[in-house]
Amino acid sequence: xxxxxxxxxxxxxxxxxxxxxxxxxxxxxxxxxxxxxxxxxxxxxxxxxxxxxxxxxxxxxxxxxxxxxxxxxxxxxxxxxxxxxxxxxxxxxxxxxxxxxxxxxxxxxxxxxxxxxxxxxxxxxxxxxxxxxxxxxxxxxxxxxxxxxxxxxxxxxxxxxxxxxxxxxxxxxxxxxxxxxxxxxxxxxxxxxxxxxxxxxxxxxxxxxxxxxxxxxxxxxxxxxxxxxxxxxxxxxxxxxxxxxxxxxxxxxxxxxxxxxxxxxxxxxxxxxxxxxxxxxxxxxxxxxxxxxxxxxxxxxxx
Amino acid sequence: xxxxxxxxxxxxxxxxxxxxxxxxxxxxxxxxxxxxxxxxxxxxxxxxxxxxxxxxxxxxxxxxxxxxxxxxxxxxxxxxxxxxxxxxxxxxxxxxxxxxxxxxxxxxxxxxxxxxxxxxxxxxxxxxxxxxxxxxxxxxxxxxxxxxxxxxxxxxxxxxxxxxxxxxxxxxxxxxxxxxxxxxxxxxxxxxxxxxxxxxxxxxxxxxxxxxxxxxxxxxxxxxxxxxxxxxxxxxxxxxxxxx
Lengths: 303, 244
Fold this sequence. Notes:
The complex is a heterodimer of chains A (303) and B (244). Chain A has 303 residues and is an alpha/beta fold. In chain A, 32% of the residues lie in helices and 18% in strands. With 244 residues, chain B is α/β, with parallel strands linked by helices.
């Protein structure tokens, strides 16, 4: 295979560039402006058992080199995703896709994952136990090793496809959570989700975000994400997907050197809808610059 | 939708704090009045969405008010500078239900999208009537430009320093076939209550992407959840659900 290809739990992907869940919809908005089949894969909008409107607006705040969002897992629910969104996705993307799943109870995760696992388009499940924007679920599962492991066990019991667990950085010891997920049977770890953040409007003296706090993402969080990827990748044997502020081909290489097998690109898609294609196109030249023949060779190269 | 590099041709103050910028380049993806474009600016992470005021071939006009870092940076730009602009965003106004004498209502920086709309309606042989609402005389812009198109124009000012004293709803004509409206939310609500025909409203919200990917600007409507950037910013009167 090509010098950009990597293998994610037995599935070879053409390159390690994966748009992150929540920044790429179900792909078709982006398919209007480029052929998204150039992507390694992509992680579609976080899906829950029931339909969700999400949080009130404003849901978005700008920051230096980043942004805060508090969308709150708006999605039409797993049944509608399967009936309406996946057929539309199939028209513009012909590779295995990553199904991102969220929930509010362990049974919700199992229910939604079991349904999506049966869809032939789905190559991997990505279980989000790290959404900072919902109450009574989401991130609460990702801040406790026991609860994280319980979600993984419940999902693994009803699915056949590789399960990545998406972790939150809003914890004291991310390695302990990652190890608990690995021990519970997770096939891979995705990290990091957004960091809990906040902005205040000086004119109104109120939080910019209607929900007060939200998830901070963008290039500003890249060093934190890189550090956590480094820590986790060297502590577990399963593959790690590096996420957090990735915006350039150089960032991809840095994440892979830290231990990531692939990377997800999030906020950057919102600012430049072409960014993932640009990264893929720029990777060979940047690899030449740093004398990298094959991306597979550099995974975890920095110890 | 297309991300293009546009060159500033003109950038001048119309009135205090309100600027008109004319840009040149590939504007082929702008297809309707009421659409917007999204400006990438140096040092600012998110783009800045600004409505389309006018379009002549490869020449785009926007009018913006300086309200923060982004618009301040835009106001300092000079002829020849280049800007990365995501063009052709949003649905824009639907001309089909306009009828013979549609009413165009713009308030403050809600005025600009009415200009291209007026031109498009005139080109279809309609007779648009225009109401432009401002706080005070010193803020009034584009009255003459609308008149030059051949539109009947009523200006309202809150303090009565020019035209009809009061809000746009104090300047409503006796008869009109339909309405189109853009302005601050209190104005939209007042128009919603006052106008007797059906019509279309253009909405604003803090946006992440501006093209439907992030779900940052979703609102509830009679027909379900809509993304203001992609399914809007124009909504029909019948589908609007006011939040409070």
